[in-house]
């Protein structure tokens, strides 16, 4: 099974698979999307929380802040997404999906 992650404007991912069942794709991709959305919400909330303390930022500084915070989110996502995709490829996704959902308090 081949699996690719396609970023969707920094707000989610589309998981594209070949030679796999739609239910498997849906469960794993739904968990990845939920995880990405949860972390993106935390990122936006934290930027909003500290923005007042940062003072007026020029556009270059805004870009650096966005790039830094998005980079952190991408690094945090690497391990759980890799685990989900590897479990899906091995047809053993149920336990990993449930574990990731519990750890990150994601809804089904």
In round numbers, the mean pLDDT is 82
Radius of gyration: 16 Å
Beta-strand residue fraction: 5-15%
Q: Mind describing the biggest β-sheet?
A: 2 strands, antiparallel
Contiguous low-pLDDT stretches (5 residues minimum) are 8-14
SS summary, helix count: 3
Proportion of residues in helical segments = 55-70%
Order of helices and strands: EEHHH
Helix/strand-derived category reads mainly alpha
**Integer count of domains:** 1
How many E-type strands?
A: 2
Q: Which strand order spans the largest sheet, edge to edge or round the barrel?
A: 1-2
- Shape descriptor reads elongated
User: How far apart are the first and last residues' alpha carbons, in Å?
Assistant: 24 Å
Q: Give me the oligomer status.
A: single chain
What does this structure look like?
This protein is mostly helical. The chain has one domain. Helices cover 69% and strands 11% of the residues. The protein has 3 helices and 2 strands; from the N terminus they run ββααα. Strands 1-2 form a two-stranded antiparallel sheet. Helix 1 packs antiparallel against helix 2. It is elongated. The two termini are 24 Å apart. Residues 8-14 have low confidence and may be disordered.
Quickly describe the structure:
With 108 residues, this protein is mostly helical.
Notable characteristics:
3 helices, 11% strand, elongated, mainly alpha, two-stranded antiparallel sheet, 108 residues
């Amino acid at each position: 099974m081949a699996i690719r992650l396609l970023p969707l404007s920094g707000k989610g991912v589309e998981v594209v698979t070949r030679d796999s069942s739609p239910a498997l794709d849906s469960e794993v991709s739904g968990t990845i999307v939920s995880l990405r959305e949860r972390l993106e919400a935390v990122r936006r909330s934290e930027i909003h929380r500290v923005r007042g303390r940062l003072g007026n930022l020029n556009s270059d500084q805004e870009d650096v802040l966005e790039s830094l915070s998005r980079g952190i989110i991408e690094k945090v996502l690497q391990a759980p997404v890799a685990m989900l995709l590897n479990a899906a490829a091995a047809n053993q996704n149920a336990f990993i999906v449930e574990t990731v959902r519990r750890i990150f308090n994601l809804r089904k």
